[in-house]
Amino acid sequence: MTKSLCLTVDVDRDVNISIPGKIEAGSTDRGLGTSPRYASSAEGLKTLTDLLDEMGIEATYFAEGRTLINIGGELLAGREVGIHGMDHEDFTADIPVEEKEKILNESYRTVKDVLGINPVCSRMPYMKISPDIPGILTGLGIKYDSSEYRAIGERMFPHRLGGLTEVPVPVSTDSEGKKIVGYLWPMHEGKRKPSDYARMASETNQGIFILATHSWHMAESVKNGILSKEEKEFNRDNVRKTLELLLDGGYVFETIPGAIRRNMRAP
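and the corresponding structure tokens:
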């Protein structure tokens, strides 16, 4: 049986951080304060889309509204793009439901206006989804969400979350018993290697494996700041190696809607 792999890319402000007392996120201070930055996200998105186009791999992109306004939609035109909040808000915080509805409506309209599409996918910032969010999303026309984590198993099929089809990001343990999730964040920070993700993906025989990353992480490290040319090339090579190993493992890369349509008959 064919195994689906959905590569997902969070397109949001550079090295986003929560700011005490604010709903909106900022960016890690690199000497000019914590106001949002977008340059690394834009550069990293170009690196990723070039690489994926070269490899013939489709992905699903979750675009934060404010980032999309700042970097433009040229690189995302014709691709599967979902919503990711407006300013990387934590929707599990103490925010009135009316404000959540307003924010998500603005996020939806931004993707629609910039890219000329009606998005059907979503991922909530920080991978945090509160119980009132699915109803808001379905009211907007969102069908598919990927905002939860789930322990990996041989069968990784979507489940229903309110009116949504939820496709969780897998969680497992590595050969040393340490936790590993389907985000490439640790690899970008030099703490994991491509084979770790290939080993993790080999634990699933059926269904959908979600692999996630951030566009800014191709150009900037949380720990070390803006990457050098050599570091960026090493980063890109690691992503390529990871994807090649997953292809060798029998996975077919698909968008989230495409993978769900093919796996809908599964329980």
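(Above: one complete record from the training split.) Residues 197 and 246 are 8 Å apart (CA to CA).
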